From TrEMBL:
Portion annotated as DNA-binding: 35-54
Record SUPFAM superfamilies: Homeodomain-like
One Pfam family hit: TetR_N
Keyword Transcription: yes
Protein name: TetR/AcrR family transcriptional regulator
HTH tetR-type domain sequence ranges: 12-72
Keyword DNA-binding: yes
Keywords, sorted A to Z: DNA-binding, Transcription, Transcription regulation
Superkingdom of origin organism: Bacteria
Length: 195
């Protein structure tokens, strides 16, 4: 007879089953198109287990979004790691983000549903710890190197940059060509490149 799992292991296993199932369903059909009954069936757990771990479907969605944001942050951080040139790091970070945003789960969960489901304030608070955090860190380093005019509000600039990058990702996902959008975004962020 196998050893009994601890309560912590059961909790982790149940939460993982719920977030995995929900993530797949939310990616496929969006938050509004998925019922809690479908989620618990796909996860192989009971409704009681869902409501034991999450107050409601929105709380489960928030957990899924948090996990997705943590993965995106880790991927972008790895892509720009070790770069000593702030402009090059920003360009790599933007390109990496645009690549990531073409994934169906990121487009649907992160860019389309999250602001509407969680509300702007909650969405922005999560972004502040993840994507906005990376941008703020990079812009702070650029400011320290004198690349940003003195007196510029790095937090305000960071939010504007995040908005521009997200809008670019949405434009590309909705049929605008990747190359012209990326070029326009880089011109906006880094200024025109002279040859």
């Amino acid at each position: 007879m196998p050893p009994r799992r601890s309560q912590e292991e059961r909790t982790r296993s149940t939460r993982s089953a719920l977030t995995t199932a929900a993530r797949e369903l939310f990616t496929e059909r969006g938050y509004a198109g998925v019922s809690t009954d479908e989620i618990v069936r796909a996860a192989g757990v009971t409704r009681g287990a869902l409501y034991h771990h999450y107050a409601d479907k929105q709380a489960l969605f928030r957990d899924v979004f948090e996990q997705l944001e943590a993965e995106i942050t880790a991927e972008i951080t790895a892509a720009v790691a070790g770069s000593t040139d702030q402009l090059a790091a920003m360009a790599v970070g933007v390109q990496c983000f645009l690549d990531i945003c073409q994934r169906p789960e990121v487009l649907r969960i992160g860019l389309t549903d999250a602001p509407a489901v969680l509300g702007w304030a909650a969405w922005r608070e999560i972004e502040g710890r993840h994507g906005l955090g990376i941008i703020t860190s990079m812009l702070s380093a650029a400011a320290d190197e004198g690349m940003i005019p003195a007196g510029t509000s790095v937090p305000a600039l960071s939010q504007l940059v995040l908005s521009a990058v997200i809008e670019s990702a949405l434009m590309i996902a909705n049929g605008a060509g990747r190359e012209p959008v990326q070029q326009a975004l880089m011109t906006l962020l880094l200024g025109p490149v002279t040859k």
